[in-house]
Amino acid sequence: MRKIIAGLFQSLDGIVQAPGGPAEDPSGGFASGGWIVNHFDDTTGAFMDEMFAAPPDLLLGKVTYDIFAAHWPQSDEEPLAGRINAATKYVMTSATGDLGWRNVQPVRDMAGLAEIKAGDGPDILVQGSSTLYPRLLEEGLVDRLFLITFPVILGRGKRAFDGAPPGAFRLVEQRLGEKGAIVAVYEPAGPVVPGSF
After folding, report:
1. Cβ distance 157 to 17 under 8 Å?
2. pLDDT of 102
3. What is the pTM of this model?
């Protein structure tokens, strides 16, 4: 069985929209695209390199897929570009026909994704694709979650966990970047257990 490793770049207030550039996703009038650029450092870069070291397959929502497909086939950012272009890209979409990039497989629903996860192959890395998180968590398909939290507050924009079911997570790794980003890696740890002081 394969693992699904889900990862997000987020602001201190949980915004995940358009971290890499102004044109990535300006929907809803979002004007702060590119907010990670001045805070990305050797630690965050090394962590992301490790995520792609044993080349994973990718799981992408349609919006993130379109962003990736417009960038990576023309990129000279080796070795990452080569790994992303060579990876099988599972895209959650109802679209039919050619999606315009090699090694692309449309996935219609979470049941189809569960079948893929149960099969053989490399781990599956979710990048961006914020709309997928509530359903992935609801279906229990996330084996590991990494969040890279950057030292900015954005005030508005898309969040990944709105509508997600309650659940506890166990911290399994953490790193502090030179420019203030925090890398935290979690694994599911069952239900939330309330308490009181």
Report:
1. yes
2. 85
3. 0.91
CA neighbor of 29 nearest in space, from 131, 157, 154, 129: 157
Rounded CA separation 100/112 (Å): 21
Cβ atoms of 30 and 62 closer than 8 Å = no
Structure tokens at 137: 């968590």
Alpha-carbon dihedral of residues 142, 106, 56, 133, nearest 10 degrees? -30
Report the range out of 68-77, 81-90, 98-107, 134-143 with the highest average pLDDT.
134-143
**Is the pLDDT reported for residue 82 higher than 80?**
yes
CA–CA dist 31, 98 (Å, integer)? 32
Contact between 91 and 60 (Cβ < 8 Å): yes
pLDDT at 122 over 90: yes
* CA dist., res. 175 & res. 161, Å (int): 22
The length of the chain in residues reads 197
CA–CA gap between residue 35 and residue 150 (Å, rounded): 8
Helix or strand (DSSP H, E) at 42? helix 42-51
Helix, coil or strand: residue 26:
coil
By DSSP bridging, strand 169-176 and strand 182-188 are antiparallel
Nearest by Cα to 162 from 131, 189, 186: 131
Q: Which residues of 54-63 are buried (b: 16+ CB within 10 A; e: fewer)?
A: ebbbbbbbbb
**Distance from C-alpha of 16 to C-alpha of 22, rounded to nearest angstrom:** 13
Alpha-carbon gap, residue 149 to 88, rounded angstroms: 27
